[in-house]
Specification:
This protein has helices spanning 99-113, 143-150, 186-192, 231-241, 259-266, 291-305, 319-322, 325-344, 360-372, 379-392, 397-401, 418-434, 441-455, 464-476, 487-492, 495-498, 502-507, 543-547, 564-573, and strands spanning 8-16, 19-27, 31-35, 45-49, 53-60, 80-86, 91-96, 159-162, 178-181, 203-208, 213-217, 251-255, 281-285, 350-353, 410-412. The chain has 579 residues and is α/β, with parallel strands linked by helices. β10 and β11 form a beta hairpin. The active site is at residue 354.
Length: 579
């Protein structure tokens, strides 16, 4: 509480979705709370946890000045306001009758939002309600049980469970237990890891029991400009391809990046596979852009929505298409469609990676499994999928979500001094430096799941609200599931005993998040990558507001767009080793 300069302010005017309400602002240790008088009808309270806050602006005058002319409304120039943008696309503004009170609230919110240690977040104090205590989401994913469910015989089959990374010394960002070919000894495995970025060696994540095809994930090889090679890495991939006993089958090495990005990495000592060293397989590039492109794409959507506090109108709605977000989502579904058909129709093994193998690799691996395996389209299975391919395989949730926020996201425009202007310019530069590793990777994956669910609603046990609440809790820091960057950190922070799993929240409310029209069947889902829409519920808008200007079933297509069927046909005709 020592950070809080002011705990309560009366006569605050709240603006949200173009409407205004007068009430009282309360600042607590972990929440901003706006309350209405007892006589009010409808909404009585609005709660906002501090980690959800993405940007705060302090301005002189009312927030309404952004929509009207100050010369014709001089009364609006009194007092001050805070404009707050949240990560769940909630936009609100608070009008204060007094600038000093507004400044105190601004300073308090900044101190409470900007933390430098993850164990200071609310999750470490949160006490679950009774219905959540009946569940333990930390135990939902068990390595042996899940791969046995997939159809593997880990006792005597071609795959085995390795404990070589049990102390996380082999690969600090990988799980303690991995599935590797039985023909590969721990000695060969330990010598192979240095050839892959961050030591993220090829490890099994999914076995397709219908034809024995599998998804193996890794990071990029360290080939460099000299086209280095590793006999141990080549042996490992060779044994992976041999696990289904179909020696003449052409398998795929899948690089999720654009080819130019992969080639550029060679100058930095990394790169992509030299295909002549991996006989019997072919390569495909998925052309999925990096985290920086995706972050800027979503920022453009936020720019369109930025006046959602004082207005119901979108700011420059034509910028929605120019954001490129739908193109990125469509491209990911196109890649998913290609790989689903490669596995389901052709029985190809997939060796999948991007750069470090914890962003695009997690996205695509998860989407392919979601389409192939109906178990992952149940609530229970989706939990296992996220725990396996995101939490266990080291997606950097803390880093990508920006849980440890900086004061560079706070802007004080009420001070007009030259010093303040210089400070703001410096702050703007620091903001870009501090946020360069943040990116909506997991949110984009959920957006792709939303598209699949919209196209095949009866194939999913969970509903749209489940995905939306998952986005909320990605940033809320109320639960421990998304606070860490890898399994090793989870154990170091003792999250299983010090925090609650987010899955307890969802499983204890399963009926709320279930789709009543769900049909349990074993069919494969094929994405329609030409049918993508803005996830309007997530953005807090109507379908017509976000998608009314889109042609039905069409999005702006990339110039080099090619159907999945054509790509697969081309792959069949490629010479082995051709890139």
């Amino acid at each position: 509480m020592e950070y809080i300069k002011i705990t309560k302010v009366d006569d605050i005017l709240l603006f949200r979705r173009g409407t205004s309400l007068k009430g009282t602002l309360h600042l607590t240790t972990h929440h901003l709370i706006f309350t209405l008088p007892p006589t009010a009808t409808g909404m009585r309270e609005l709660w906002c946890c501090y980690p959800m806050i993405e940007r705060v602006e302090l301005n002189k005058g009312s927030a309404q000045l952004y929509m009207v002319d100050s010369e014709t409304h001089p009364d609006l120039c009194k007092g001050a306001c805070l404009r707050i943008r949240c990560r769940d696309f909630t936009f609100m503004a608070l009008d204060f009758p007094d600038l000093a009170q507004c400044q105190d609230a601004y300073d308090s919110i900044m101190k409470l939002t900007c933390i430098d240690e993850i164990d200071k977040v609310y999750a470490f104090l949160y006490s679950p309600i009774r219905i959540e205590t009946a569940f333990n989401g930390w135990k939902d994913y068990q390595v042996f049980d899940e791969f046995q469910r997939q159809g593997l015989d880990l006792d005597s089959g071609p795959w085995r469970l390795s404990n070589l990374n049990s102390d996380y010394r082999l690969c600090s960002s990988y799980p303690a237990q991995t599935i590797v070919p039985r023909a590969i000894s721990d000695t060969i495995l330990s010598h192979s890891v240095s050839f892959r970025s961050k030591n993220r060696f090829p490890a099994l994540t999914y076995y397709y029991k219908k034809n024995g095809a599998c998804i193996v994930r890794s990071s990029q090889p360290l080939t460099g400009i000299k086209q280095n090679r590793s006999l141990q890495d080549e042996k490992l991939l060779s044994e992976i391809f041999a696990t289904n006993g179909r020696q003449n089958l052409a398998n795929l090495i899948v690089d999720a990046r654009p080819i130019t990005n992969a080639m550029a990495q060679a100058a930095l000592g990394a790169g992509t596979e030299v295909m002549e060293n991996y006989p019997g397989c072919k390569k495909v590039f998925l052309n999925i852009e990096n985290i920086h492109i995706m972050r800027e794409s979503l920022n453009k959507i936020k720019e369109v929505l930025k006046n959602g506090d004082v207005s119901t109108q979108l700011y420059s709605p034509e910028l929605l298409i120019k954001s490129g977000w739908l193109n990125h989502v469509s491209n990911m579904l196109k890649a998913t469609d290609l790989l689903v058909k490669s596995m389901h129709l052709n029985g190809m093994h997939l060796i999948l990676h991007c750069s470090d193998g914890w962003d695009r690799t997690s996205q695509i691996a998860s989407l392919v499994q979601l389409c192939l395996d109906p178990y992952f389209r149940t609530l229970e299975g989706f939990v296992v999928l996220v725990e396996k391919d995101w939490c266990s395989f080291g997606h950097r949730f803390n880093e990508r979500s920006g849980h440890l926020q900086r004061d560079t996201k706070f802007y004080n425009y009420a001070q007009d001094t030259n010093f303040q202007k210089i400070k703001q310019l410096n702050q703007h530069f620091k903001h870009h430096q501090n946020t360069k590793l943040e990116s909506p990777v997991f949110q984009q994956f959920l957006d792709c799941v939303y598209q699949l669910m919209r196209q095949h609603p009866e194939k999913f046990e969970f509903n749209e609200r489940f995905l939306r609440r998952l986005v909320y809790h990605l940033y809320s820091c109320q639960y421990g599931t998304f606070l860490y960057d890898c399994e090793r950190e989870k154990k170091q922070l003792q999250l299983e005993t010090r925090t609650q799993s987010v899955w307890n929240y969802f499983k204890s409310r399963k009926q709320e998040f279930s789709f009543p029209g769900y049909h349990d069947d074993q069919e494969v889902v094929f994405p329609n990558y030409n049918d993508v829409k803005f996830w309007y519920q997530l953005f807090g808008k109507s379908n017509d507001e976000m998608n009314g200007f889109l042609s039905v079933g069409r999005v702006e297509k990339e110039k080099d767009a090619t159907s999945s069927a054509e790509k697969i046909d081309r792959l069949e005709k490629m010479e082995v080793g051709e890139e």
